[in-house]
Design brief:
The complex is a heterodimer of chains A (529) and B (300). With 529 residues, chain A is of the alpha/beta class. Helices cover 33% and strands 24% of the residues of chain A. Chain A is built from 17 helices and 22 strands. In chain A, the strands form five sheets. Chain A has a six-stranded mixed sheet, with helices on both faces. In chain A, strands 18-19-20-15-21-22 form a six-stranded mixed sheet, with helices on both faces. Chain A has a four-stranded antiparallel sheet with strand order 2-1-4-5, covered by helices on one side. In chain A, strand 19, helix 14 and strand 20 form a beta-alpha-beta unit. In chain A, helix 7 packs across helix 8 and helix 13 packs parallel to helix 14. Chain A starts with a strand and ends with a helix. Chain B has 300 residues and is mostly helical. Chain B has one domain. Chain B contains 13 helices and two strands, in the order ααααβααααααβααα. Chain B has a two-stranded antiparallel sheet with strand order 1-2. In chain B, helix 3 packs antiparallel against helix 4 and helix 11 runs parallel beside helix 13. Chain B is globular and about 60 Å long. The model of chain B has no long low-confidence stretch (mean pLDDT 90). The chains are: A alpha/beta (529), B mainly alpha (300).
């Protein structure tokens, strides 16, 4: 079968880091297929797609589309050639409507001077209609869900008449429902004759959606296969060079002492009927990993902030070793020994423009001063040298942490936090967007903490991670705890999924259970549309 | 009504006084919407003030004076913009540099051309023509307030309307707002955010040039540092006006009124002069505090 797109002998070295992101890469994509481009972080997938979309220029290599060689010097040229890209991080203007975001740069005009907003809405409505999206062109971006934002990004490209769509990690921010909806949309687009390249490292999704797979590792193409011919563990082997199955020992019984406990923690906001957190109670104990999961928007973020001391609670109490620590400052909490690996590792977890070694002492810098009140460089250098080797950080102590890869930034944060741990630690979405090797490293550290008797709180929307690690699983839905279960063979993905989506609720106060369930189902649909 | 006799000239006067604030703020709004706080407004007003009056004196034409003064200000704003946007300098440093440059350049040229760094008087300069429509002048109160100003006042109102149309009804304004809100959204579509910011800066050069011309041509003289903080207050006006042209019109009037009141109060009220002169600035502080309180309430 003839290729629709062929990228041949593409090489790209980044002069700033000397990193060879693409090394003689060949990619062949057939018309009308969904082609999965898989590989770990740093395998070169995004670089390759950035080249295809004109964001980066290759050092060598050619790009042929429909048998003709084309030059793609910038995203506009890519659009003209019929190539569209949906970025992992959405690039939308919050204050603008859906329609305005879609037409930005190619605005319909009224006369020679004026922007025709009404025509923009009509044109965008036509694209929405044709592709069966569920979104209104007049809505502002600030009012829509993350899943809908992604739809806007896709609509943007379809409006520009894209025939070849590139989706970079499209599912990383979506809920299970939104993922299914996205896949339905993608299949619909294929029926209309479009071609799709999807970048991902979620293997189940690769199996589910793609026709063919190109596997990349360390800047090279390792293998090209028909999806039907391979199974998940085989893809995984090709990606990392070894098969990865998360199977960890559970904790030992008999050493459970409550370290941190929450009692009826509630947060109410003005002009918001439903509390953001509603009567949350649980105990984090020694020798235990307590896993808290749920779909985004159901209180996980707020719970993270409460445990880290960054959000005041309206009612309820928080205890640490039987002492009341309700609404104490983050500093006081840190002085008590809370180690914290936050969700937002770029803004909250690190100071991007300062060096690795400085990031390593952010929380403990007072210990690195000499008697004159000046930093002791020797001590700081020794400290960072030790942690860099202990935590297998791939990066130099003196470079800004922002130049490191996501996995290495997270390892720096991990090293800093676990160095100061006393008896409790909070991990929030610790492996979000990381590759399998980095994730595994983090899991090992988490288990090490548990073995040392530390109370580990793991907040994660990744069910597999929760199932593999947690001794006790808590599921949140609409700000409430709907399930608290000990891990075991009967606690499966499906069971947790039902709680996460509000289909089941162990703590329902409503006697009329069935109507409550119907109600929540409808609500969910409403949010998804 | 004695009250009316007092308040009509007061409001009339406020409208004259607000014009430089209004013009500078409208220009500043264009860069603000593009995502840059333009602290160079102060210096740009000074450049416009100096060059428009000396060009007017040299050519004997008010029109040419204003035109060349504006072109000079646009030129300076272009340098400011190019260094900031294309050479990627920090906008606060370049803005500060522009303000220092304006003070230094005007002083040096003044000394070089006229032998003094002090006040430059241009006695034979024609005064700015006023707009008088005798038929409409008869309208009670409103006629007295709205007519009899110099033409630059009316031009500033026209600029407010045009600014509104440009911001909300043209692709340029649309993209400018997009740039300020999320430049990455623009880059991802192959649009260059810097280009829109540059045009915003050039527009601020245009309006600040005109604002400066209003100051000196009204007076028929150039006084060192004649901008005297108006560029800074214009920044407050932008925020107080909610970053919309008509909001800015209202906010500028508040400051015109404050200054006008302090001028009147000096005449016949027994308040220390220093306090009266500080009045517009006290208003500034009070306005900002009130604004931020309202905003925090809204976000809660």
């Amino acid at each position: 079968m003839e290729s629709y797109l062929s990228m041949r002998n593409i090489s790209k070295t980044f002069s700033s880091t000397g990193l060879k992101a693409n090394d003689n890469v060949n990619l062949e994509v057939r018309k009308g297929e969904i082609h999965a481009l898989v590989g770990e972080n740093g395998a070169g997938k995004t670089t390759l797609m950035n080249i295809l979309y004109g964001i980066e220029q290759p050092d060598t290599g050619t790009i042929m589309l429909s048998g003709k060689e084309i030059m793609i010097t910038n995203p506009l040229a890519a659009n003209k050639a019929g190539i569209g890209m949906v970025h992992q991080h959405f690039k939308l203007v919050n204050e603008f409507t859906v329609a305005q975001n879609v037409v930005l740069g190619t605005e319909p005009m009224k006369g020679a001077f004026f922007f025709d907003n009404r025509k923009a809405e009509a044109d965008v409505a036509a694209v929405i209609e044709k592709n069966r999206f569920h979104i209104s062109p007049e809505m502002k971006i600030s009012e829509i869900s993350v899943g809908q934002m992604q739809q806007v990004e896709i609509i943007k490209m379809l409006y520009r008449k894209a025939e070849l769509l590139i989706l970079d990690e499209p599912t990383s921010v979506l809920t299970e429902q939104e993922i299914q909806r996205l896949f339905k949309t993608l299949r619909e687009l294929i029926k209309q004759g479009k071609t799709i390249i999807i970048i991902t490292h979620k293997l189940a999704e690769v199996k589910d959606i793609s026709d063919r797979i190109t596997v990349m590792r360390k800047g090279r193409v390792i293998s090209v296969k028909d999806t039907a011919d391979v199974d998940e563990s085989e893809i995984s082997r090709m990606m990392v060079g070894k098969s990865v199955v998360f199977d960890f020992d559970k904790g030992v019984d008999g050493c459970r002492d409550a370290v941190m406990s929450l009692e009826n923690v509630t947060i109410k906001k003005k002009r918001q009927g439903r509390p953001i957190l509603d009567g949350i109670s649980f105990e984090a104990s020694t020798c235990e990993i307590i896993g808290i999961t749920g779909v985004a928007g159901n209180g996980l973020t707020e719970l993270e902030d409460v445990i880290a001391g960054l959000e005041r609670i309206s009612s309820g109490r928080v205890y640490h070793n039987d002492q009341d620590i309700t609404n104490i400052t983050p500093k006081a909490l840190r002085d008590r020994g809370l180690a914290y690996v936050p969700t937002d590792r770029l803004k909250r977890g690190s100071s991007l423009e300062t060096s690795v070694k400085e990031n390593l002492i952010l929380t403990t810098h007072h210990d690195f001063m000499n008697s004159g009140g000046v930093f002791d460089e020797v001590k700081i250098n020794e400290h960072s040298k030790r942690l860099i080797s202990e935590y297998l950080i791939d990066g130099h102590a003196d470079v800004p942490i922002g130049t490191l890869s996501g996995g290495n930034i997270q390892k720096v944060i991990l090293a800093r936090e676990l160095e100061m741990v006393k008896d409790f630690v909070l991990f929030s979405e610790p492996t979000w967007g990381l590759d399998i090797a980095s994730s595994e490293f983090i899991y090992e550290k988490m288990l090490e903490m548990r073995a040392r008797g530390v109370a580990v709180i793991l907040i994660s929307s990744n069910i597999d991670e929760i199932l593999a690690l947690a001794d006790t699983v808590i599921v949140m839905y609409r700000g409430r705890i709907v399930a608290k279960k000990a891990s075991g063979p009967e606690l499966t993905r499906e069971v947790i999924g039902e709680y996460m989506l509000g289909l089941k609720d162990d703590y329902s106060t409503d006697d009329d259970c069935s109507s409550d369930n119907d109600h929540s189902k409808n609500d969910f649909k409403g949010e998804d549309n | 009504m004695s009250n009316g006799e007092f308040s009509i000239p007061l409001i009339h006067n406020s409208i004259s006084i607000m014009t430089p604030f209004l013009l500078a703020a409208i220009g500043g709004l264009m860069t603000e919407l593009g995502g840059m706080l333009n602290i160079a407004l102060e210096g740009l007003i000074l450049i416009g003030a100096f060059f428009s009056v000396i060009f007017a004196a040299a050519t004997g034409s008010l029109f040419l004076g204003i035109l060349l003064g504006i072109l000079m200000t646009i030129f300076i704003s272009w340098i400011f913009g190019a260094i900031t946007l294309y050479l990627k300098a920090n906008v606060f440093i370049t803005g500060l540099a522009t303000n220092l440059l304006a003070g230094g350049l005007t002083a040096v040229l003044s000394f070089h051309l006229f032998g003094t760094k002090g006040v430059l008087m241009f006695n034979d300069l024609p005064s700015l023509p006023s707009l008088n429509v005798p038929a409409l002048h008869g309208i009670p109160v409103l006629g007295d307030i709205l007519f009899g100003h110099n033409i630059l006042v009316y031009m500033s109102w026209l600029i407010v309307v045009v600014a509104w149309i440009v911001i909300y009804r043209t692709p340029f304004g649309f993209r400018l707002r997009g740039t300020g809100s999320n430049p990455n959204a623009m880059s991802a579509l192959g649009l260059k955010p810097q280009n829109y910011q540059m045009i915003g800066i050039l527009i601020s050069g245009f309006t600040c040039g005109l604002a400066g011309a209003v100051l000196t041509l009204n007076l028929g003289a150039y006084v060192p540092n004649i901008s005297s903080g108006r560029g800074w207050i214009a920044l407050v006006v932008i925020y107080l006006g909610g970053k919309t042209p008509f909001g800015i019109l209202g906010a500028a009037f508040v400051f015109g009124l404050a200054e006008s009141l302090s001028n009147y109060a000096q005449g016949f009220m027994d308040i220390p002069a220093d306090f009266i002169l500080a009045f517009p600035y006290i208003i500034t502080v009070a306005a900002m505090v009130i604004m931020s309180v309202i905003q925090t309430r809204r976000e809660d």
